[in-house]
């Protein structure tokens, strides 16, 4: 059996269809982006799964991260600017995590 790739990602793209999900994990370029230009992204991995698998994964990730935050006595947050870029309202973010 071959070793699984070990990659780092700081961007992602999620595509849903009635039959499944594709998650593209990407890495931002190392050079500054000129104003008005799209960022340079390198796709480092593509993961495809069923919607049922995705929903189970999201549940387990949510549960595990919540347990980690409780054990470590910390709260992992995102800057308001990131939430705005992802079109997530602050109140929706807080409701999901509490």
Q: What is the helix/strand order?
A: EEEHHH
What amount of the residues lies in strands? 25-35%
User: How would you describe the oligomerization state of the chains in this entry?
Assistant: single chain
Task: Give the count of helical stretches.
Answer: 3
What sort of overall outline do the alpha carbons produce when their principal axes are compared? globular
Measured between the Cα atoms of the first and last residue, the distance is 41 Å
Provide the structure class.
Answer: alpha+beta
Radius of gyration: 16 Å
Strand order of the largest sheet: 1-2-3
Integer count of domains: 2
Low-confidence stretches: none
The largest β sheet comes out as: 3 strands, antiparallel
Mean pLDDT: 93
Structure summary, number of beta strands: 3
The helical percent reads: 25-40%
What does this structure look like?
The model has no long low-confidence stretch (mean pLDDT 93). With 98 residues, this protein is an alpha+beta fold. A hairpin with a 2-residue loop joins strand 1 (11-17) and strand 2. 37% of the residues lie in helices and 26% in strands. The radius of gyration is 16 Å and the shape is globular. It has a three-stranded antiparallel β-sheet. It has two domains: 1-49, no CATH class; 51-98, no CATH class.
């Amino acid at each position: 059996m071959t070793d699984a790739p070990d990659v780092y990602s700081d961007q992602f793209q999620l595509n849903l269809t009635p039959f499944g999900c594709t998650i593209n994990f990407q890495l931002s370029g190392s050079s500054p982006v000129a104003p008005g230009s799209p960022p340079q992204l390198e796709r480092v991995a593509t993961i495809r799964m069923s919607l049922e698998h995705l929903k189970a994964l999201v549940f387990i990730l949510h549960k595990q991260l919540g347990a980690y935050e409780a054990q470590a006595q910390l709260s992992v947050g995102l800057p308001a600017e990131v939430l705005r870029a992802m079109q997530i309202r602050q109140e929706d973010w807080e409701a999901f995590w509490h």
